[in-house]
Specification:
single chain; about 170 residues; alpha/beta; four-stranded mixed β-sheet; three-stranded parallel β-sheet; about 30% helix; about 20% strand; elongated
Length: about 170
């Protein structure tokens, strides 16, 4: 009889997926157009177009940008589209909304492009704790993507996971 301690987690076929490992490098920027409104309430087309024309869009090089307006103003859709045309050559990604919408969009793209062949008929644990802003929706999207191929799916840490699915 051996007194050797075996690490069953390390020796298992369990695959851990940590969405933090997929977190793309790049600054996230919330671009608020409120400062470009007259009295922070009214969009004057001529002035707005002038702001867009004269703004230094290169400062958004390789950044993830969420376009928003924090003022209680009615902003026509074309205003965001005009900004998008100017910022698109520089930014990695542009969305209309807040930073959570931005992260959700970033992870939706990552998960859509995730190669799942390596997870076929394997027990999977999706790591739950992260230091980066992983949107809750990303976990749901990941599970939806893995359901057709996974043997089982758990959530948490290997030492204390919550079983979610078993084929």
């Amino acid at each position: 009889m051996s007194n050797e301690i075996k690490n069953r987690v390390a020796n298992s076929k369990l695959i851990t997926i940590d969405l933090e490992d997929f977190y793309p490098i790049g600054e996230r920027v919330l671009f608020d157009i409120k400062k470009w409104l007259f009295a922070e309430q009214i969009l004057k087309e001529k002035d707005f177009r002038e702001f867009v024309k004269n703004h230094n869009w290169q400062e958004y090089q390789n950044k993830y940008v969420a376009l928003t307006c924090s003022a209680e103003a009615i902003i026509p859709s074309w205003a965001y589209l005009l900004i998008t045309i100017s910022i698109a050559p520089f930014a990695k990604k542009i969305v209309i909304g807040n930073l959570e919408v931005l992260e959700t969009s970033v992870f939706q793209e990552i998960i859509e492009n995730l190669e799942i062949e390596n997870y076929k008929e394997k027990p999977i644990i999706i790591k739950g704790c992260s230091n980066k802003p992983i949107p809750q929706t990303a976990y749901s999207q990941l599970i939806s993507k893995l359901l057709p191929v996974a043997k089982s799916i758990m959530y948490g840490e290997a030492c204390s996971s919550v079983p979610l699915f078993k084929k």
